[in-house]
Amino acid sequence: MTEVDQKTDEKKVVPQDPETVEKELEEVGFVAPPDGGYGWAIVVSSFLLNMVVDGVIFTVGKILQPAWVKGFNISEASAAMTMSILSGFYFFVGPVASALCNVFGCRQVALAGSVIAAVGFLLSIAAPNIYVLYLTFGLVAGAGFGMMYLPAIVIISQYFAKKRSLATGIAVCGSGIGTTVFAMLNDVVWEFVKQDWQQFLVYTATVTISGFAAALLLRPLKASQDQIEKVAEIVENYEENKEKVPESPSLSKHNTPFLSSLELHTAGKHANGVHRNGSVKSIIDAVAKDVEELNRPLARMDIFYTGSTTNIAARSRTGTMNREEAAEHLKNLRDNLKEDTPLQYLSKLDLNVAEDGTIQHVEEKSVMRDIGAALKNLLDKQLLASPSFLLLAFSGTLTLCCFYVPFIYLGNHLDKIEGLTVAEKSFTVSLIGVLNIIARIGCGYIADRPEVSALHVNNIALIMAGLATMTVPFYTAYWQFLVFCVPFSIGVACFAALRSVIVLELIGLEKMSNAFGILLTFMGVGAVVGSPMAAAMKDITGNFDTSFYVMGALMAISGAMCIPLGALRKWELARATKSDAKTEVELQKLTDAEQK
């Protein structure tokens, strides 16, 4: 045996502690985002899915709601409830959709979502009354749209890290394109079907099922065979030499779920003696499943963060710093910047560890467990007890109250101007879509500039959009409506694009997945309440003037109420620190007393 071979063998038998091996396993088994390649096909698919979902949600209401008012002889508020349930469940289903992505993968969930939404629209054709539409058009189709939207966002984070901001920016531009295209196309189709809302729903279902083709492109990112073999080799070496580690602590004292699961799943191999014969290949099938678990979407803490991961450290909790502190924080990070993208993920296998530190079992992947965990995250006590987070969440509810109102009811104010064609009226919504694209690109630029506060930009944009909405009833000329589209589009884009960046600034990365689910729920409430509230005001007053005053005020308030958010979060963290210090002192006193 040569000297080199001897050194190699010595290196292999050096015993390692479980936590070191766990880290090595994660580094080898984790599938790093390629930041390109097939990822650009994923961006195209996400773009098309956003185009279909938002294109339908933002544009069909202004055509269908008046038809339902007339066809069912109901109030504006009753008709508006159908669209509001659709948009509300689009948000409500988010936590469940994320759990389904974790179990089945993004492609399967998006495919199922397109079918469910299309079926919902087709079932609506035979609806005998508005209440059936609440179920078929609102709940069923809304849930399907949520299952199409969330995978399209999640999978971008799996394929992109450093270029994530660019990729996400391109993908969400589908929302603006969809709004622009369908706002004009819907009027043509409406006239073609002779203003028959049931035939129009066939067209809506056809557009929706086209998302099935786009979802087929959502190919999951999997570990290579080479990665799996390397993981198997590490486990083999660890198993052969772990008895050489003196007095190894119990597993319950180590955060080693990936290693523990691998040991458990390869135990049969060891018992049969196959592993001892030196065959690494024999355990590859056993470890492949665990490597897949490591790379599930929700195993990544940054899965809902839409900015580039190179800025995560620079962004994290900067919302609790003043300008000077944030600048110093950013400077220190740049001075110590490393080229490698940081590993932003966690192993999330649930282990049942006995008192002696042995693992009794590892829970297998299951739909109900993951859905239960997702719903449990909605009750995160730490977040729900945080005044700053609740303020952010409630502001989202107020924003969504106004969010869809101009898309649906702006045309009612345009009716005051004589001589406008149907195309001219629809152009305002199309213009909002175009400006939304430009604004979202700008938001992507902001997301990659840690020195710019996303919270401040969001607050200013929402206040401007809200104030502009309040002025709509005073417009008497067409150009005024076109000018209105500018601030409103910017407000909508900033709210949608910067939400995850704001959460990172205030809360940090560790709680982002939980925060995202809770925020979706609060936004869903606003989406359900907003449009019917605006329609009810019209039923009472006879016009939409009061509706725009109130809804615009709510959007402006949603921005204004977040102005002190950074200071509130800073106070909250300081109070928690003092409380922890006090508890530590009290525990030390008890310890000293016991020793005496």
TrEMBL record:
Pfam families (UniProt xref):
MFS_1 (PF07690)
Main location per UniProt? membrane
Q: What is this protein called?
A: Major facilitator superfamily (MFS) profile domain-containing protein
GO molecular function (one):
monocarboxylic acid transmembrane transporter activity
Q: Record's InterPro entries?
A: MFS (IPR011701), MFS_dom (IPR020846), MFS_trans_sf (IPR036259), Proton-linked_MCT (IPR050327)
Keywords of this protein's UniProt record, alphabetized? Membrane, Transmembrane, Transmembrane helix
Q: Which GO terms describe its cellular component?
A: membrane
